[in-house]
Amino acid sequence: xxxxxxxxxxxxxxxxxxxxxxxxxxxxxxxxxxxxxxxxxxxxxxxxxxxxxxxxxxxxxxxxxxxx
Length: 68
What we know:
Elements: H1 12-22, E1 26-32, E2 39-44, H2 45-57, E3 61-64
Antiparallel strand pairs: 1-2, 1-3
């Protein structure tokens, strides 16, 4: 990970967007657990789609991290 691309004045959402714009086969995603905490995970693109579908069945939300 090239940390030179990150600026201290940016927020975590900006950093997450940077990862997701540079990674081709994976996504940095987050799961909304209804608190102020962040649950982040790296999933392959295929795993991400499956996780989103399964989360909906459980009335939860998984999305790319910058959208949470």
